[in-house]
Amino acid sequence: MKLAELRGRAAVVTGGASGIGRAIVRSLARAGMSVAIADRDASSAKQLAQELAASSHRVIAVGCDVSVYEEVAALAATANEQLGSVAVLCNNAGIGGGVGASVVDRPASEWEAALGVNLNGVIHGIRAFVPAMIASGEPAHIVNTASLAAFFPAAGTGPYTTSKFAVAGLSEVLRAELSEHQIGVSVLCPGPFDTAIWGEDDASPRGNDPAVLGPRVLAGIEADEAFIFTHPEFAPMLSQRFDRIADALRGAGVAMRDAESQLS
């Protein structure tokens, strides 16, 4: 989708009141889109909406817990009613889930929280918005926020990494399924950015300024990028990971022949 095609159309960003979501909201508004800012922190969403409205942008704030399907369905109804047919959906809301505890030691509540927001929140967005996007017959685009953690599993991040692997796979499936409907799907895989997702109390920077992700996501939408990456310095590590996986797959030939020989 060319940026000119977005002007005057509607967009929805979950987790839109802070961090990456806020950056995306601002860029979509500057591109001339009407934007629904959805966030569990309704007061922060309203504050951002008021800021953008003062600059003549058409925005609304909607309190929404994406882990609850009924709230996402209500968000879809509100956005379509007040802003019109949604052309851009950014399933961006996410939580970190904490760092340190092993997979074995994680309580069920932490798994449910991380998967409920990071994965089910994306699924709920797809279920609530995509049928109307298809029915409109107009070009549209979906951006699902994952992470570089979808490719680089790290000890101590079990719930978070699990959810992000799932979002990446889900996005690839959805991209294949929606291509015939002129609906593009991108998975946003940011590297380290200075956001509050991990809930640290200190104010020290933890990565790049997330403001750059607004124009980066717009460029990804326009180019219909399957993967919207941000940190090219991780490419060699990713190549090494995929090489190890491919080597293991090639090596399965000998292992399978050995296994078959034991059956005869």
Short description:
The chain has 264 residues and is of the alpha/beta class. 50% of the residues lie in helices and 14% in strands.
Fold and architecture overview:
The chain is of the alpha/beta class and 264 residues long. It folds into 2 domains: 3-230, Rossmann fold; 236-264. Helices cover 50% and strands 14% of the residues. It is built from 8 helices and 7 strands, in the order αβαβαβαβαβαβαβα. The protein has helices at residues 3-6, 19-30, 42-53, 69-83, 108-136, 158-178, 213-223, 235-261; strands at 10-14, 34-39, 59-63, 86-91, 140-145, 183-189, 227-229. A 7-stranded parallel sheet has the order 3-2-1-4-5-6-7, sandwiched between helices. Helix 4 (69-83) packs parallel to helix 5 (108-136) and helix 5 packs parallel to helix 6. The protein is globular, with a radius of gyration of 20 Å. Residues 200-205 have low confidence and may be disordered.
List the helices and strands and how they pair.
Layout: H1 3-6, E1 10-14, H2 19-30, E2 34-39, H3 42-53, E3 59-63, H4 69-83, E4 86-91, H5 108-136, E5 140-145, H6 158-178, E6 183-189, H7 213-223, E7 227-229, H8 235-261
Parallel strand pairs: 1-2, 1-4, 2-3, 4-5, 5-6, 6-7
Helix pairs in contact: 2-7, 4-5, 5-6
